[in-house]
Amino acid sequence: MEHLLIAGPILLTLYYIYRRWTGISVADIPGPKADSFLLGSQVESFQSQAGETDFKWQAQFGDVVRVKGVLGTDRLLVSDPKALHHIFTSGYNISKTGFRREITRLLTGPGLGWANGEDHLRQRKINSPAFGMAETRSYIPVYLAYANKLSAEWKERLGGDISTVVDAPHYFTRFFLDVIGEVAFDYQFGATNNSNDRVAEVLSSVVPKFTTPTTFDILVLGLLELVPVPLLKAFTQYAPTKGLRNSRQVERVATALAKRLVEEKAEALMAGKSKRDIMSLLVKANASANPRSNLSADELYAQMQTIMQAGHETTATTMSWTMLELTQHPEVQAKLREEIQATERAIYERGDTEFTAADFDSMTYTIAVMKETFRFHPVAFNTLREATRDELLPLSKPIVTLSGKTITELPIPKNQVLVISIVGYNRNTDVFGKDAHQFNPERWLDGTVKPAANVGMYGNLMTFGSGHRGCIGWRFAVYEYQAFLIELVKNFEFSMDPTIVSKVRREAGIVMFPTIEGEVKKGPQLPITIRAVEQL
Ligand code: HEM
Ligand SMILES: *[C@@H]1O[C@H](CO)[C@@H](O)[C@H](O)[C@H]1NC(C)=O
Ligand SMILES: *[C@@H]1O[C@H](CO)[C@@H](O)[C@H](O)[C@H]1NC(C)=O
Ligand SMILES: *[C@@H]1O[C@H](CO)[C@@H](O)[C@H](O)[C@H]1NC(C)=O
Ligand SMILES: *[C@@H]1O[C@H](CO)[C@@H](O)[C@H](O)[C@H]1NC(C)=O
Fold first, then answer.
1. Which residues are annotated as a binding site?
2. For a Cys-Cys bond, which of 167, 229, 431, 517 suits 98, CB 3.0-4.6 Å?
3. What is the per-residue DSSP string for 206-253?
């Protein structure tokens, strides 16, 4: 026993010396000093508002920063464009971490967000056709119908009054839930009718539950990250904790509905009466795949929860952040409204009544506002990756290491955890201009944005991730967002009580959502003042 006690640390030290000797150690990369050996810098990192430590450390140390994890481990916080490009084009050699994937499996089952390697490739292939440009555009009338329903509800709230206050997240959560129900599953959750669908309630309760973790949570999460995945799996399968019991229950409820929907859609397909919702397209793609590349039943059921968890609060919350920016930039609002009204006039003049995909694509200022919101408020503010072999990360700018060496490429060891700072990259001044920390849609129109970095799914932004497992629903998000933005700005002017503006927090939950200082426990909240706009 004593021998072990002595041998352990010696072996560990030798191992570290070996790693350093072979050049594969990130210990020489500058970064913030840890608060403690046990917790590293994780408490500050997790308990600050979303992006706060990213911005601070980026300013202090640059675009690759060594941040201390629990028990003396090293994590690299990455926002360097070249390094990101390498990470997201390295296939599964740098993959989603086992821990993150396990969390995803708990929330969604064995779906697209969980799968890795060959399984992911296979699942992604079956999923892709349902998320194409033509499919996404065909849903525009549904987005517009719900946007319309929301503005009718707000007009009713206004009654005869000049202005009223609405809590933005409360509305967007319900409306975006019904949109995704209809478009993805051809299923009516009825959230905008205030009917209490059990499945809707259960499914939409998951994401908001993940809020800023306590110090104890941070320690447990950090330690679990170090546990081998098979052990983790056994733990999550059987452990009787409350959170896990809840997620197993969510899984049961969602799977039951998914099963029913898949059966209905398979029957419709057989009868030649297939619809165009995402689930129908999945069932169709699966049916025509060969047995080696089709989905198992569990994988197909898991897509329902995957789409719900990935595609609902993300878009809804992005819309709330847009409202905040519009209240703070009346000139942006006015210019936006002008473009919307001009487009609307053109639509009437040609004898149409509805915006089409071509209209959406022609609205350059609206698109600039959308991109700027995606850039400034990336609701998925970071993600994790792990090297599965030693890797060499190219760098956009040289790093001066602690020992004084200047390096232009950074060797990282196998198993190195990378924290991809989506929020940090989106504020990179080399890509987005000197005023990257300001909200300014003009940067998209005056040539400020340098599309050289070659990362991201849309607009050179990291908002939707990047590469072969970047957001599969980004087109969906873009058109849905635009439909709501157009409809709301057309009908309302937005402002906000200045005493509340200074109290808005970027809460670092599983997505970044707005809360009000002193009322964080109330959850997502953003009181916006609306006034009716005179119509054409
Ligand atoms: C503003 C809205 C959205 C944002 C900011 C967003 C962001 C992201 C990001 C950053 C990733 C990559 C995660 C990683 O690399 O670890 C991702 C993946 C994903 N997103 Fe989105 N998303 C949005 C909307 C949607 C919508 C509307 C859908 C579906 C209808 C969707 C479905 C997915 C799926 C299935 C994945 C996993 C893809 C894979 O692993 O292959 N997302 N999203
Ligand atoms: C992944 O690693 C393998 C072997 O280690 C290598 O042959 C392959 O080129 C790498 N893939 C990518 C996309 O870099
Ligand atoms: C919601 O209300 C609308 C109109 O009031 C109605 O047409 C629709 O069928 C309702 N949907 C559900 C799911 O109750
Ligand atoms: C394809 O579907 C069949 C029937 O559901 C299943 O037995 C098989 O395992 C599936 N293939 C894959 C690769 O999951
Ligand atoms: C997926 O497709 C295969 C045939 O390729 C089929 O046997 C299987 O039942 C399908 N899975 C589901 C869940 O419908």
1. 471
2. 229
3. HHHH--SPPHHHHHHHHHHHHS-HHHHHHHHHH---HHHHHHHHHHHH
Ligand nearest to the CA of 264: 5
Ligand nearest to the CA of 178: 3
Q: What per-residue confidence (pLDDT) applies to 316?
A: 96
Asked whether residue 211 is domain-assigned, the answer is yes
Q: Which atom of ligand 2 is nearest to the CA of 389?
A: 5
Atom nearest to 289 CA in ligand 5: 5
At 35 the pLDDT is 94
Query: What one-character DSSP code corresponds to residue 352?
Result: -
pLDDT (average), residues 44-56: 95
Does residue 18 lie within any of the structural domains? no
Q: What CATH number did the domain enclosing 233 receive?
A: 1.10.630.10
Of ligand 3's listed atoms, the one at least distance from the Cα of 197 is 13
Q: What is the pLDDT of residue 223?
A: 86
**Quick one: pLDDT at residue 1?**
45
Rounded distance from Cα 189 to ligand 3 centre (Å) = 10
> Any idea which ligand is nearest the CA of 93?
2
Q: Indicate which atom in ligand 5 lies nearest the CA of residue 299.
A: 13
What pLDDT, in 10s, does the model give residues 65-114? 999 999 999 999 999 999 999 999 999 999 999 888 988 888 888 999 99
Residue 9 lies in a domain: no
Q: Is the CB of 255 under 6 A from ligand 4?
A: no
- What's the 280 CA to ligand 4 centre distance in angstroms? 18
Q: For the packed helices 278-287 and 242-270, what is the interaxial angle rounded to 10 degrees?
A: 70
Tokens describing residue 61: 């140390």
Task: For ligand 5, say whether the CB of 287 is within 6 Å of any of its atoms.
Answer: yes
Q: Is the CB of 190 under 6 A from ligand 3?
A: yes
Residue nearest to atom 3 of ligand 2 (CA): 93
452 vs 463, more confident: 463
pLDDT at 133 over 50: yes
- Decide if 19 is inside a domain: no
* 468-526 pLDDT tens trace: 999 999 999 999 999 999 999 999 999 999 999 999 999 998 899 999 999 998 889 99
Q: What's 141-187 look like in SS3? A: HHHHHHHHHHHHHHHHHHCCCCEEEEEHHHHHHHHHHHHHHHHHHCC
Q: Are 483 and 475 in contact (CB under 8 A)?
A: no
Question: Total structural domains in the chain?
Answer: 1
What is the C-alpha separation between 456 and 51, in angstroms, rounded? 18
Q: What's the mean pLDDT when you consider all of the chain?
A: 91
495 is in which domain, residue-wise?
A: 24-532
Three-state secondary-structure class, residue 508: strand
